[in-house]
Amino acid sequence: MNSPMVETIRAKIEAVHRRKHVVLSDGTRKQITGAVRTDEAARMAALILERQCRSTLETGVAFGVSTLAICLALDAVKADTIHYGVDPEQWSVHQGAAVALHDEHGIQTPLRILEGCSHEVLPALLKEGVQLDFAFIDGWHTFDYTLLDFFYIDKLLKPRGVVAFHDCWMPSKRKVLRYITTHRKYRLLPYPKARLNLSLRRLARSALRGSPDPAFFLARRADLLMLEKLEDWEPNFDYFENF
User: Domains (ranges, CATH) in the chain?
Assistant: First the structure.
């Protein structure tokens, strides 16, 4: 989706990347490191606009570049929207950078920062009855924490909702993706296939065993992949499948 609104959001994200910092509420500058690329941010914004998402969440807010793209798209939806940001260090380490970036751009969509680890704050959202249209997992990158993020988000996500994963080149992320494709009802959404960075030998070593779509390792730089939830589903207690 290359709408004028997506291009406007792309330009705003690119401007933040060019200046390489966030202006905090006290006027000081916080250097940006490790943020999503402009094309990744634009892809998420395009999906939110196309599907008219209203309730979104991300784990790992940090400097707020992905937060900015998501919230700009939610603003363009022009509905009753909200974005939840889960980050144990938004204030203690990042000094409210995501909030400052959100406010700098005059965004109307509420940004609700949940400062804490996923296992501490996501259960509270479940208890509140929150339902999500879109979620972005970019928190602590180990297998266990990524799987924990997904476990709760899967319960929060509506059928036909979408979950996105960042840094999918990492073995920990690939293992979680193997689990999703074998143990949950999800489908991989289309992704850019240009600039493949995996050799055939490396691909052969990394190929999914038993996955319905092992080709997702061919994603552009294998960084950002999005999966659609097909239905609410829980296996029987004795269900087993390798992943």
Answer: 4-229 (3.40.50.150)
